[in-house]
Design brief:
alpha/beta, eight-stranded mixed β-sheet, 12 helices
Length: 435
Amino acid sequence: MTDDAGEGDSGSAEPTSYDLVIRGGRVIDRGGGLSGEFDVGVVGDRIASVGADLAIGSASEIVDASGCIVVPGLVDLHTHIFPGGTFWGVDPEPVAWRTGVTTFVDAGSTGAFSADAFLRHCADRASPRVYAFLNISTIGLVAETGESRREELCDAKLAAATIAAHRDFFVGVKCRLDRRAVGDMGLLPLHRAIEAADETALPVMVHIGAGPPEIDEVLSLLRPGDLLTHCATGQSMALVDGEDRIRPSVTAARERGVLFDVGHGSGAFSFRVAEAMLAAGVLPDVISSDLHQRSILGPAFDLPTCLSKFLALGMSLEDVLAAATVNPARAISRNGLGRLGVGGCADISVFEVEKGDVAFFDTELAERRADRLLVSRATIVAGKQLPPVPPAPPARWIETTSRQDALLSEQRRSAEMRRPWVSRLGAAGDYVSYK
């Protein structure tokens, strides 16, 4: 599903009946300016009413959200969802129903050579919604890395033509900039990505990690609206210096409108760096999971787990939710998403903020303890509650621990599949280290 919804009209009159009513929850919708105890009424695939004590009449389905928060469907801006076509890809359907993510944005799994195959793959699915950044490398992420080590593979004209042919699907250009991805090419792949983005009037999403290139060089090239992903990486291209101070190039980039995305993944999130950023007042614009074959079994797991980590680090619930709803929707110019406007698409998530001790780990396997965890209770896409879908096994080339294997086996046969996976793995030795 890739259609975008309109902005909606908050002045519409309340209908006499609903297909679905979410009742009794606390609505938090930064994009729509809503905060309070409201019911949400749905007719067809649209939000029909948001208000206190809606007359539910003959509603076909009622979701009891008592004690829960009701938010716009989460938008995960950095995922890899081309299973069978890339090293990294996972199926989003077994993830969506249990995590509240209603829109997955693929971050460069496909390049121009495989774009049509990826589009056919996505067209076969009814939900969740899917968009993509096109990789500047024509071969995309069919392998683990190395996609931009040859100049002829970074074809800006072909990338622009591919985007133009599928403008409703592609939302930007992806470029991975680290020493393994680009080799001796340095900044050339980024220059080519910017060329394609200029031609199509779209943003660039740039991955950083272990350089070269140097982070200051990368930031100097980014334009307003471009996205720097893996902004909390602890590798050599970190946004902080050796004394955990924010680099001047980071401040300059933010001032001119560059956006910072978390992209947790399996090697790109450091509690130390995230804490330094927040202490300096540098909040991420977008929180995303970088969902892929290595990260889905932890310590990233999924987007609600990543959001819960930032709650533990001191961000407010409202800021955390905005970073996974309205902010990513605006970043890709899909302004009908990420909000609960009347007349807009009925993509809605219901969460409980569960209290209790939980162990979080970053990708360096450093631990932080927390007392809150976002637990999904319902995921609604286009007015329909998503049914349970059992998890898929990892690809044959993915290393797992015995605890991760046991978790997957348990989830395939358990009625508690909705339970956050992070709550089942509580020690550093439960995870594979990708240092």
